[in-house]
């Protein structure tokens, strides 16, 4: 066990030199002593199969130290620049508009010239950047916004990512430094940015179809944006099929089709998308189609009536005065994400048609509320007792949405 002073002496004032010692303050734990900026810095060192002092995990101490020195150098030499680099992004000027490669090259060149005039050498690696490597400063630029009729807002699904080889932020156009976890990448559209830039990127994710592997269990907004649809194809196709041949079926949505057949429909949509065959020839039992639609809503990672809006709907359901209750429900509906709102509106209009035909279906708004309440809405915290207490309000909300569909939407 050696002291900080002894570690400092052993390192001999050599920049970048390091050693690991047992901590005197916390026996049994290790400390990384590292020379940087003419001083010895001490960090508590952890190990859980990989080495780390912060968020990043490293296979070796050497990689940890190398990455740390890079970060320390950049933060020391350009802290002011880093704090301001999100204030003049190239991203906001490009967005989803069509962008020629030459235009993006000029924009980056201008940015580099401005950096040069400031006398900052930190971003010198940009000079090594080959313009031919600009597959796109913003890949989404190849998607013309004018081609889409459904301009739903969607936040990016950023996850920490390790980039191989030099990489540049697609928001601010600056170099992404470090050995590993240099930034974050959107798993839906592939946007690559600094972690700090991700906090200011607008909610304009345009999912790439190649990244969307299935239809079921996929975020609703992600699915409709990826396919450029107003609503999920499962909802449209199933409802069209049900209204074409099931409006006189007794117990519609209450009765279940064979589980294996419902799973077959699910796999067909996941495999074939809007080319899935759900016709009477493929599935004569209409209850299989209603079962597949209910399963789609149950499998949504974010329910049709979202986690965020759930408490407000439950509060609205508890209001005693009928008019005030409907007003509260209407206001809460407006808080839903646009794609969720549109899908819910379409579904409620469909269920309303079923209730108008209840002499055949025997399905009233109350009956459908029992079926769809827990299917369309659930709390984020799956506390069993609280969920049980909320079930009657879930049923009531759906019942009221169906019965008052014409005035609530």
Automatic annotation (TrEMBL):
Q: Which residues form a coiled coil?
A: none
Membrane topology (UniProt): Peripheral membrane protein
Subcellular location, in the record's words?
A: Membrane
A Gene Ontology term for the protein's cellular component: membrane
Entry keyword set: GTPase activation, Membrane, Metal-binding, SH2 domain, Zinc, Zinc-finger
Q: Where is the SH2 domain?
A: 1-65
Ranges of residues in domain Phorbol-ester/DAG-type: 155-205
Q: Which PROSITE patterns does this entry report, sorted A to Z?
A: RHOGAP, SH2, ZF_DAG_PE_1, ZF_DAG_PE_2
Q: Supply the SUPFAM superfamilies for this chain.
A: Cysteine-rich domain, GTPase activation domain, GAP, SH2 domain
> Which SMART domains does this entry report, sorted A to Z?
C1, RhoGAP, SH2
Does Metal-binding appear among the keywords? Answer: yes
Q: Mind telling me which InterPro entries this protein's record contains?
A: C1-like_sf, DAG/PE-bd, PKC_DAG/PE, Rho-type_GAP, Rho_GTPase_activation_prot, RhoGAP_chimaerin, RhoGAP_dom, SH2
* Record keyword Nucleus present: no
**GO biological process entries:** signal transduction
**GO MF terms, alphabetically ordered:** GTPase activator activity; zinc ion binding
The Rho-GAP domain extends over: 218-409
Q: Which domain of life is it from?
A: Eukaryota
Cross-referenced PANTHER family: BETA-CHIMAERIN (PTHR46075:SF4), CHIMERIN FAMILY MEMBER (PTHR46075)
Mind telling me what this protein is named? Answer: Beta-chimaerin
